[in-house]
Every structure is written in C-alpha cells, then in structure tokens.
TrEMBL record:
Region (Disordered) residue spans: 256-275, 374-420
Domain tRNA (adenine(58)-N(1))-methyltransferase catalytic subunit TRM61 C-terminal, first and last residues per copy: 152-255, 286-443
Organism: Chaetoceros tenuissimus
PANTHER family per record: TRNA (ADENINE(58)-N(1))-METHYLTRANSFERASE, TRNA (ADENINE(58)-N(1))-METHYLTRANSFERASE CATALYTIC SUBUNIT TRMT61A
Chief localisation class: nucleus
Location in the cell: Nucleus
tRNA processing as UniProt keyword: yes
Protein name: tRNA (adenine(58)-N(1))-methyltransferase
Annotated SUPFAM superfamilies: S-adenosyl-L-methionine-dependent methyltransferases (SSF53335)
Xref: InterPro entries: SAM-dependent_MTases_sf (IPR029063), TRM61_C (IPR049470), tRNA_MeTrfase_Gcd14 (IPR014816)
Organism lineage: Eukaryota, Sar, Stramenopiles, Ochrophyta, Bacillariophyta
Extent of Basic and acidic residues compositional bias: 392-419
Keyword annotations from UniProtKB, A to Z: Methyltransferase, Nucleus, S-adenosyl-L-methionine, Transferase, tRNA processing
GO-annotated cellular components: nucleus; tRNA (m1A) methyltransferase complex
Length: 455
C-alpha cells in the first residue's frame, strides 16, 4: 500500500553537525524509469534543502565535512539536509507491477482483490481477466474480459485501507471505515506513534492504524487465535506494511499460565515466527501512545492496558453490546482512566443524481370564491343574512365572483405550458446501515499501574 512504501535509507555520510548527505546516482541506466525518477526526486530535495537551510550561494559546502571513511567532496547541488529529509519517500507508483496488490472493482457493492501474478486469470460472472493484462497498466484503468467478446469489464484500483476492508477475506467481524475513521480521530493517532491493538482478527483495523502511524510508528497487534495471527502476519508482509507492525500471538486478557484453547490445533513448532504468550501487552510499562480493543471481554484487558499505556494516552474499546460497554467503563474508572465517552456512529448516505421536476408555476393563480381551495370539489355558498334575504355580504360576494371570472379568464390567457426541468437532486438512501458497535473512549491518568501479572 502507498503509505507503507518502504523508506529507502541510504548509506549515510554524516557531517559533523549530524547532518546526513545523500548523493544522486551517477550511472543511471537510461531505461530504468524508477532509478531516473529517484534521482530526479533526490535532486529536487537537495535543491529545496540547500535553498531552505543553506540559503542561496551558501557557505555551507565548506562547513560540511563528511565523517565517512572515504571522505568525498561533493558538489553543492548534491547535498541534502537529513533533518528535513531524514529518509527518502518515493512517490507512489501509479503502474501495476508483478506482485502488486490490486483492488478489483466489479460493481458498486462488489470489490475483490488479487496480487498481480503473470500467467494467472481472475474469473467472475463478467468474464476472464488475465493478470498479464493488468501488469504495466496504471491503477484506475478499465480492463475488458478476454472472453465474452470483451463485453465484461472491471476497474483496477490502488489499494487503501478502506478498499482493502471492503475486499479482504473476512476471517472475523471487522471494523468498517466509518468506525475506524472515528477511532483514529478520537485517539488522535498520528505519524510515528506506538499503538497497541487487540484482537487482530482480519487485520482491517490494523491497516487503518498503520496508515496513520507511518512512516516510523509501530503497531503491536495481539491475537490469541494462532491461525489468524499467522495469516495476518503473512498478509501484512505481502501488502508491504510489515515494517510498521509486530504481530503477537498472545492472550491479552489472560494470566501467564493460561493455556490457549484457540490455536486451532496447531502446536508452536520450532522455527515458527510466532510463539504463544499470555497475559496482556508485552511491550513494557507506559510504552503505548494509544490502545484499541476489539475483544469479546474487553474489561479483562483494561488492567493490562493501564500498565502499558502512557499517561494521558488514548484508549478505545469497540463493543457491539451495551452490557459489554458498561462493564468496560467500570473497569476503566477502576484503573484511573478519565474523560470517558461512549458514542455510536451511524451513516446516512445520500444519492446525488439528476432528477426531473416540473417547473414552479410563474403565472397568476385563479382566485375563485365559489371554489373552496382547501377542500377540492367543494363550493362555498354565500352567507345568508338574519332575515333570510341576501344581505350586503352576499351582494359583495356576487360582485366579487363576477370580478373573479374576469380574472380567471385573464389568467388563463397568460398560463404557460407545463414543462419539466432536469436538475441535480439529493435524496437519502431508503435504508440506513444498522448498528455496528458502541465506541468507548477514555484517557489514561497519570498514575502508573504495575503489571497485573506480577501483582
Ligand atoms: C472482532 S475480531 C477483531 C477484528 C479486527 N478489529 C478487524 O478489524 O479485522 C476479534 C478478535 O479478537 C480475538 N481475541 C478474542 N479474545 C482475545 C484475547 N483475550 N486476546 C487476544 N485476542 C483475542 C479473536 O480471536 C478475534 O480474532
């Protein structure tokens, strides 16, 4: 995924002031577009850095001395200030390469994904789509099926955490984009933070957190189901985000002696990358800037969270039921968390499309006193006077009625033909997505809590 593009660290050449200098490559292959682009980017970064930090015609060149063994005098244009550009972040590639993750847009409500692999074919009801046709094409393009006379088509989209959540293989219930956005916002998760999450489940929320903490943050994600922990680890690697995450196969609610019953029958084999642990988050005291819990019994993880979170760090628990939320709130209070708030987020989507409306009448409306405008088809009779004769009111009414007829005639003459007008309309969808979960947010207090396992 784009946000996770591995940052390229150059062999650094350090100056006395601790500034690192990066060099553009000299012998770039003319056909190597990527290397040419890297060089161009670096040149521009160097230029910007020297303009900003050194000023034009700067003396800096003479003040920077490299500490590397093979101290080289460099041209001023090839200097970069590492404080500004500590690492080089390449712009995202817009071209699909072999191995790239591609989100496949089949229709408005149907998304899928593939890792572009030469020789493989993606099948759906619209036809057969060859991965070879994807490779070398830009993201966002439309691909036609090789069968069905090319009538079938799909769009190839660049993956984002939101599109990934809509296309991934669900191994569990997942946190959808509306809730994940609110969680990231309320926990104030920012670049380079350390965040803990449990359980990992299908890894949907993990990708959202990783985007927010990139480029140098770390997500510690805890899952006690061995198969899910392993699958998530492999998936993170394949999606190129593994440098932002550590997957822990661990029960975050349990005691160290607790046995996992959910390792799906798999024993930890020698050489396996994950070993089972039990009892909370294992990254040390006051180490996490934020913690996100999506667990069936989150209240059991709160004592561990209180030990692991930094003072004033943000905690969020995502629970579908109010009873879970209530127990979690109580545990949060018991462990010094404050500023508790529970919210439920509902999405109200709208269609915005063209509608055909009758034009608003601009002609004069007829005023007919004999017709009750409020009850269609009912006439108004003149009010009789007390002695049974038609009183002055009735006479007035007659005069009025005559006037009315004239007016009606006039207005009929100016009446415009009814025409329709096309315009943009906005209507809510007839049904609204239902309840997902209650999100409880809290802030950690200043008191440090001991590791519950050692109590
Ligand atoms: C609803 S899923 C999490 C989904 C995830 N947030 C996502 O967006 O894909 C809950 C996960 O928590 C795991 N889990 C439940 N209890 C746990 C515990 N005590 N320690 C670690 N993981 C646990 C379950 O195995 C399950 O995979």
């Amino acid at each position: 995924m784009d946000f996770a593009k591995k940052l390229t660290d150059y062999e650094n050449v350090t100056t006395k002031s601790g500034v690192r200098i990066l060099e553009t490559k000299k012998d770039v292959d003319e056909n190597d577009e990527k290397a040419k682009l890297e060089n161009l980017l670096l040149e521009q970064a160097n230029k910007a850095a020297s303009d900003l930090f050194l000023g034009s015609g700067s003396r800096l060149f003479s003040t920077i001395k490299t500490l590397s063994e093979d101290s080289v005098v460099r041209d001023k244009d090839h200097l970069i200030d590492a404080k500004l550009y500590p690492t080089k972040l390449l712009p995202p590639s817009s071209i699909i390469e072999a191995g790239s993750l591609v989100v496949i847009f089949e229709s408005f409500d149907s998304l899928n994904f593939v890792y572009a692999t030469p020789g493989e074919v993606f099948h759906n009801k619209n036809g057969h789509f060859h991965h070879d046709d994807f490779i070398g094409k830009p993201y966002g393009c439309k691909i036609r099926s090789r069968n069905n006379r090319g009538f079938g088509f799909l769009y190839l989209l660049r993956p984002t955490p939101e599109l990934w959540a809509r296309s991934l293989n669900h191994r569990t219930q997942i946190v959808h984009e509306l809730d994940s956005a609110i969680v990231i916002f309320n926990l104030n998760i920012r670049p380079n933070m350390v965040v803990c999450e449990s359980g990992t489940g299908s890894g949907a929320m993990s990708h959202c957190i990783m985007r927010a903490i990139a480029p140098h943050g770390k997500l510690h994600t805890y899952e006690f189901n061995q198969m899910r922990a392993h699958t998530a680890k492999e998936e993170f690697k394949r999606n190129g985000v593994d440098h932002l995450v550590d997957v822990h196969w661990r029960d975050v609610c349990g005691k160290p002696s607790a046995e996992s019953t959910s390792n799906d029958g798999r024993e930890t084999k020698e050489g396996e990358s994950l070993t089972f642990g039990s009892g909370g988050f294992d990254i040390g005291p006051a180490a996490a800037d934020a913690i996100f819990l999506d667990l069936p019994e989150p209240w059991l993880a709160i004592p561990h969270a209180a030990h692991t979170i930094k003072p004033n760090g943000g905690l969020c628990s995502y629970s579908p039921c109010m009873e879970q939320t209530q127990r979690t709130c109580q545990a949060m209070r018991d462990y010094g968390f404050h500023s508790l708030k529970t919210i439920e987020v509902r999405l109200r989507e709208h269609y915005v499309d063209e509608v055909e409306l009758e034009k608003v009448p601009t002609f004069k409306l007829p005023r007919d006193m004999n017709v009750n405008n409020y009850v269609p088809g009912q006439s108004v009779s003149p009010v009789p006077s007390n002695n049974g004769e038609s009183g002055p009111e009735a006479k007035d009414m007659e005069v009025d009625t005559n006037k009315k007829e004239e007016e009606t005639k006039d207005s009929k003459e100016v009446k415009e033909p009814v025409s329709k007008k096309r315009m943009l309309g906005c209507r809510p969808f007839s049904n609204m997505r239902g309840h997902t979960a209650f999100l409880t947010f809290a802030k950690a207090g200043n008191k440090s809590y001991p590791d519950p396992l050692k109590e």
